[in-house]
Amino acid sequence: MIKVSEIAKNKVVELMQDDGYNPTTDYIRVGVKSGGCSGLSYDLKFDKEQQEGDKVFEDNGVKIIVDKKSFLYLIGTTLEYSGGLNGTGFVFNNPNANRTCGCGESFSL
Length: 109
Hints:
Blueprint: E1 3-4, H1 6-18, E2 27-34, E3 40-47, E4 55-59, E5 62-66, H2 68-74, E6 78-84, E7 87-93, E8 99-100, E9 106-108
């Protein structure tokens, strides 16, 4: 399961509408790919369709899809949004990550 904070939800809805997606029927796709300074990096994009093998969740009114491989890395993660002095953007609070980089965009297990 992936959780979505209230602030992240509001930003997701705003960005989906700006990009022509419908927050009530479309998805935010969350994934993990190789790369980044810690070995793995997060991938976040909007999607209108599920793929075979996707895990589907809904939290705080946000529909989330995760591919089967990424799901193992993301169990228990909370998607948050930060607008502080260190930068603006989505932040993944992943309890599975043993090490993260300074920017918070990559991690290792």
